[in-house]
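Supplementary Methods S3. Complex input for the zinc ion-bound model.
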Amino acid sequence: MNPTEFPQRLVQALGPDTVLTAADDIAPWLSDWRGLYRGNAQAVVRPRRTEDVAQCLALCQQEGVPVVPRGGNTGMCGGATPDQGAANVVLSLDRMNQVRSIDTIANTMVAEAGCILGNLRRAADEAGRLLPLSLAAEDSCQIGGNVSTNAGGVNVVRYGMTRELVLGIEAVLPTGEIFHGLRTLRKDNTGYDLKQLLIGAEGTLGVITAVALRLFPRTGVRSVVLAAVQSPRQALQLLQLVYEQCGPRLQAYEFFTGECLELVLAHAQGVQNPFAQRYPGYVLIELADTADETALNALLESVVGDALERELCLDAAVSASLAQLQAMWKLREEISESLRAEGPHLKHDISLPIERIPDFMESAEARLRQSHGDVRPFIFGHFGDGNLHYNLSRPAGAPREWAAEHGAAVTDVVLDEVNRYGGSISAEHGIGQLKRDHFLHSKNPLELRLMRDIKRLLDPAGILNPGKLL
Ligand code: FAD
Ligand code: MLT
Ligand code: ZN
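Predicted complex, serialized as structure tokens:
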């Protein structure tokens, strides 16, 4: 088939405003948020309807053309970036962005995959409900990408991962068949729960076109404290105190080191250090409830007082207004962007049994000091659910190529330590192309065989997101 024939067939089938074929139009769709990957594609398809997605996949399946599903392109593992192959088709869900329904009796929302997460959270709030999935990328990432990566975010400690929020999925399989699983029932025990295969599959088993989500009572009352801590060990002890005294009101428990705070103060706009001095580490704790602000603030004040008395933290700044609450969150949320501004760095999105975090941190730091003493750690993350972003930046003054030269050796040390402490090499970002080799070498062989069997069953021609995950 000549190189322009297939794109023209897509144009004929789907229309010229749905299919981009000119090189300049395709170019912006070929790289990832981190700038780690750049690929190739013969066309970009931006469907508005599920039927168009089905037609596109059926055509690609016939010709064995690889398809790369793409959401908001905020993924950290290159999952939405095509490889160098010239035949790729990027399928973007960005124009399937309608909220199909919000039901405040059943507390459900049905949204198309291309809906921006932040817009869905605002739509839920306007309806008097909470969609609890929240991450710093929420005004760019799409709900289809969130489901496809089983995203975590800052509220996992109370509401779980995206998986726990999904009631139903509509998707198109690689064959072009539409999977009509968009149920909003709380209970439906009729055979295998097939939607679970699509959650976290990173676009390798189906293209998600719509999602049915659980909604929760709006927690309009929030109170935040930024506590200074001496060490991860102290952060762990503080977590236990907060958990015991605040229970279900604990909505977020985020950790970041003093280096991360310095980085944000250096790169971000409109931020300031609420403390008069520097501390080794910080914990941002959010309590949230449906009512009674006075009681919630009093609870937080008493926990903080208790923690200071027991020397479970060095200092504490409690939010006295929404503006202060948002300013404290900004110190945490700006870390990723500030790291990107700092230049190439190694991301390790890891999870550990919570009680082993302090030992892991000490052991990994000791090993890295030996093998790569000058690497600069920027460690932060969702401590409350055991997920750390163990990110390491090139040594001061090292060339940008440092990560390319030393990255593999450094990552081997970190992930070896993660395995030693019984953790996971990918807590919430998925595998994509970034971690595929480590994944294939470390995953249990039976699990890998079953995953490959499922992939072969659902995608016999292997057209969906080849080279990612498996
Ligand atoms: P994309 O990056 O477009 O795609 C991600 C993967 O999903 C790819 O494999 C793609 O092929 C697939 N995909 C996308 N849409 C579909 C679809 N409709 N059907 C099938 N497959 C699809 N992640 C967290 O989990 N927690 C965090 O706290 C967090 N914080 C972040 C902070 C920043 C500043 C940034 C930039 C990213 C952060 N991320 C975080 C990573 C990223 O936001 C999540 O992985 C997010 O879920 C990706 O959504 P997306 O729409 O951008 O997907
Ligand atoms: C976050 O929690 O901000 C991201 O998942 C971490 C990262 O950017 O490494
Ligand atoms: Zn994260």
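The chain has a mean pLDDT of 96. The chain has 16 helices and 19 strands.
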